[in-house]
Amino acid sequence: MTQQIAVAENTLNSVAAQTPAFVSRYRNLNLLMVGLQMTSDLPQQIVELKQSFAALKTGKEAQARATAVNDFSTKLQGVITFMNTNFHSPLLARKK
């Protein structure tokens, strides 16, 4: 058991040591993977945001509109968070 733990620890130490070199070596590949993820996720988020906005415009009762506003706000915040996460820079950041 002790030997297995030592082997696992050595493996983890080796992976940890090689990770920075791997990330810098395959940076373009990492960017490509993020880009591919965005091309599949972002359009769906935009469709849902547009549907939320349409529900907001067509809501007749105050309760329906309030629900639509909350849904739209949540969807919009989701898109902003997605963009901030994938671009590593604040979208719509306020300039001081």
How many separate domains make up the residues? Answer: 1
Write the element-wise H/E pattern from the N-terminal end onward. Answer: HHH
Structural class by SSE content: mainly alpha
| CA radius of gyration | 22 Å
Distance between the termini: 58 Å
Average pLDDT metric: 80
Record field, number of beta strands: 0
Number of helices: 3
**What would you call the shape?**
elongated
Strand content: under 5%
Helix content: over 70%
Low-confidence blocks of residues: none
Main sheet record: none
What does this structure look like?
By secondary structure, the protein is mainly alpha-helical. It contains three helices and no strands. Helix 2 (about 25-60) runs antiparallel to helix 3 (about 60-85). The protein has helices at about 1-25, 25-60, 60-85. The chain starts with a helix and ends in a 9-residue tail after the last helix. The chain is elongated and about 70 Å long. The protein has one domain (about 1-85).
What's this entry about, in short?
This protein is mainly alpha-helical.
